[in-house]
Amino acid sequence: MTPNKSNPNVDAFIANAKNWQHELTKLRAILLDSELTEDFKWSQPCYTFQGKNVIVLGPMKESCAFAFFKGALLKDVHGVFTRPGQHSQSTRWIKFTSVREIAEMKSVLKAYIREAIEIEKSGLKVKLKKTSDLKLPEELQILLDEFPDFKKAFEALTPGRQRAYIYHFSAPKQSKTREARVRKFMPHILKGKGLLDK
Q1: What digits encode the pLDDT tens for the residues 112-135?
Q2: Which of 6, 50, 133, 161 is at a distance of 20 to 30 A from 12, taking alpha carbons?
């Protein structure tokens, strides 16, 4: 297999990375020796197969991450995946803190890359939970029932915004804290804003 052509944007990205340059270079070499195409999206190296996003590389503070967009579909026989966040439905990543770790995992990474490419070839998709499948916290439901304008505004939000609010409101263990969160964000929701919107 001829190694893929490197993308000049990725050259610059790695050259300018404050941390993990050696690790990113090592991971990149493994990716370039596959059927994936090196691209640059969302200001980071992204590897695609026939235009579909497969893997993204990202340096973080404590480590660098090798993330599979459809990692939930990979078998992970070596048990090396973690979720980027507790609500991540599709993406799974492996974090590295040394070139040695990457060298030891090279054959595993190559096997996972091949499996990810096969998943793309087969057209498999991750079955994502819909926002409508999520259970609303009782405190939110009570206020939605009590205030029709609030209910209308909440239902008008995009599914992603609704999901973010549901997760945020559901997080506290105590009911009074959950209710306080809902009340705090009511004006935000009435203005059609998402959780992180100013």
Answers
A1: 999 999 999 999 887 777 666 778
A2: 50
